[in-house]
């Protein structure tokens, strides 16, 4: 049984028509005879969406009861038992009701795919896990419901359901997305043109990147070497000279003219002779190209034009930008130069731009030949001059006789030329062949292979010796030049690697990508194993088709220690490249160790935080919990004593002390348990519509009568909260304020409506809190000023903020005008958040910036900016784990 296929309808925002497109696809498949059923589809009472559901078989939903509420979910077991060919599962990022088999709906989808069932699903771009920070910066809301990128990347098809912001806003205004009473709030907040345009750009770019990945995979699988100009990619060839910055800026301007243009700056280090490149200049050019949105690449290549063209074709580039040559005119006798060679060999599918700059023809040193040592073409010319040259010279000298001395000098000049061009062997061949010709044609007896005059024998021997000496010197110089250039290239690469470490670019995958790119390989992987007989595992990889089973399967493997190896595929590297590759391998092992150490540090930090909390809990048990227990025990012992005849008033006082101590213990233990749940993330409020004037009076049960003035108008809109969590949060705030308010000055608890928010302000006239301590008072186990022992374990405000944020609200501390502290609790009005609580991802939201602007115009001076409404709506249920209770022990404001 094969794995099912996943098709995702991706949209930029709610209302673009993802569910409609998914249902339309389902109707087409049913018409073709495909067995297609509806597992879970949210239609939100939209007539057109409901019309498309007609005729489709629907699997009955499973109803789960949680804290008195019955909530529907997809019946995964029923779908698996039905085993259709295709199932529709809406809202991939949805959080399942507690008690379901899986926590997230995408996990349900994974089970369906593993069972061989095809799935059609929907997703908004803001729910991708990797885009959380970007989405938050756009709309001011941190997404709580997300899908791992890998799940979406593995989808067999991703269809973009697109709509312009103007068209979506018209659809909203016509009532095709939300109910009419919610349209104005939605259009003025989340569905603003700027928000929609930014989210649409995110969706388009993400889909474009996935298409580009598929295109690269297809070209690699089918060995497509031709350039497909589907996207402007501009490669900038850098030499390390001053003209590089000009080239980068010109390429950036060219990229701006095309949609989605990309700039790739590449510096090619040639192993057989590099012109000097300034490391400082290259560093500045790297910074420049990255600041313009491009990427910098460092590549090793024996032939600079060929390496540059290979890099451009591998990147599917459409244009190459090069600078006009800095060589002087006479230096062109050594070759046409890189620019002319690249332009000649680029072919019709790759445009080459030669850009002028200020350093043209100002010199850059003589070029060195390509190839190993002297280069093949140069050696070939050496053999031609050394062998054919003497024969041609002998023919020319037959017409006239300049004398033996001049003849020997002419033949010697050919030997020297052969040595300069081809090195030792062509020069020796030229000397031997030339000496034979001199003996046969020009030394008596002529036309015989003998020499009668001893002086001529000496001359011929000197001729051969000079030729051999010149050839050996040229060959030795070529060897030394090659070695020096090779070492210079290696030092540049190692310097580049060290620079990456200093810049913090130490990620294992990024480093492996650099290795693959630098040596022109297809893939690179770091393999490791626990022991000599254990199987190899992949710790990191880059490129396509890496060797994952064992290092021996790779073209190149470099051992790192006893149980780790760097494996590369693509081609066999020469032995001299392994020195640099060994440095990369060692750095890869260091990067892996650093990643593991960072993970260990994170775990240690978590353990340290847990130890700190446990230490504080022990301190609380040792004093703050023992004090009321001691009082209760003393009172009970007194009442049970038969030696004292207690009066009714004394007995009532002792019983009152017992009751008060028990209440205090209950509050302390409740807050300890609540803080434990907050730290473990198990507080999940059950959001529902509540009247604030019903909850607020219940929060006053633990404070003296007359110590609080309550101002909660009955005309306030309902709020979307968990009543139990709200009561406990307000009780903690009120008792904290009452304890430190001056005697005879009641605490004011006032509420007011602001746009789609309701604010509750707890105002006291106590000593207040300094600005630098306003955030610290919400940390657990914090007590400030002269708070006496027994004043609580310092959890009241921490629990209040945790409960408030769990309900989608915010809690902030501000100065009270005239002295004191004001706690501002901001809650979502039910008019906008009730729909969010049932529609999950298809919801409106208010950004933090918009709320702050509205607040600045209408709120009281003591208030703080409101928190944004979550786009997620409920993760359909967030039930509170604790029942409503009285207030906790108060916090002490720092004086």
TrEMBL record:
The chain crosses the membrane at residues 380-397, 409-437, 457-478. Pfam families: DUF4118, HATPase_c, HisKA, KdpD, Usp. Residues 851-895 are annotated as: Disordered. Signal peptide: none annotated. Coiled coil: none annotated. Keywords: ATP-binding, Kinase, Membrane, Nucleotide-binding, Phosphoprotein, Transferase, Transmembrane, Transmembrane helix, Two-component regulatory system. InterPro entries: HATPase_C_sf, HATPase_dom, His_kinase_dom, HisK_dim/P_dom, HisK_dim/P_sf, Histidine_kinase_KdpD, KdpD_sf, KdpD_TM. It is a multi-pass membrane protein. It is found in: Cell membrane; Membrane. The keyword Translocase does not apply. Residues 620-831 form the Histidine kinase domain. Residues 851-867 have a biased composition (Low complexity). It catalyses: ATP + protein L-histidine = ADP + protein N-phospho-L-histidine. Its EC number is 2.7.13.3. It comes from the Bacteria. CDD domains: HATPase, HisKA. GO terms for molecular function: ATP binding. SUPFAM superfamilies: Adenine nucleotide alpha hydrolases-like, ATPase domain of HSP90 chaperone/DNA topoisomerase II/histidine kinase, Homodimeric domain of signal transducing histidine kinase. This is histidine kinase. It comes from Streptomyces chlorus.
